[in-house]
Amino acid sequence: MTITQLEYIVALADLKSFSKAADFCCVSQPSLSMQVQKLEDELNLTLFIRRAKPLEPTVEALDIISKARIILAESKSILSLTKEWSNSVNGHLAIGVIPTIAPYLMPKFLADFQIKHPDLDISISETTTENIKRDIASGKLDIGILVTPLQSDLVELPLYYEELFLYSNVWEDDGSKLKSELDPTKLWLLEEGHCLSNQVNSICNIKAGSHMGANLTYQTGSLETIVRLADLGFGQTIIPQMFLDYIDNKLKEKVHNLPSPIPVREVSLVHAKSYSRKAIIKALQLEILGHIPISWKSANNRSIIPI
Question: For 13, 29, 149, 295, which has the most beta carbons within 10 A of its beta carbon?
């Protein structure tokens, strides 16, 4: 059994095609097929159902592929030790970012980060917290940018504390002005699985993924969609502070502070304990912090909302 063979079966499991896996691994298809067959002979198991379209792993192969991912992640960490010792920021970096952070934070620093570190090849995935945690554990991702604290054994490096605000297009009963207090019956939230909805649930104990005042459920992970639904449907939603940089000034009159203690979310860099590219972590951390207001870098007397 070799590291190369493990790389091949993981690629097959992910891409579900011998030709695509061969291209991904930069080898010929016959060479990849031969190595997979050798591994199957050694294990005395069939790892893939070859007649299936797309290709599928056998039931027996699922645990083996899962173990292979862990072994490959540990192998990568060993190989990266020399890069850590040289204190260089190069190679490949796979980052996962949650959807309520990615559209607002990444444009602020990413271009400058690439200019400063041209030898670093970066891939970014926008997905949920649970997917990021899973992919870091399996070695698919190196670093996550998400809301903490997490109930996990991942390393968390807090970056900033972002205040949450009420966006309200609900009028007072007498029609005199827009309501500035939270009304749970008018609240729109992201679908379940998004930590911002979980945090709102912590604030006012309501269910994610719905509009409480209508016979309608709209499943979405887009904060922009939720704000538009609240705006056009005379409703409310909760938005993070960085979102304010990207909305029209005319809409900012609909943004209101939530009651004290001021609720904030803690945004952190997260990585596995085995990830050893400390120079990359430090460079990314410094670049993000360089684009964040000083007042955001401490929780002060604000209340960190759990996920």
Answer: 13
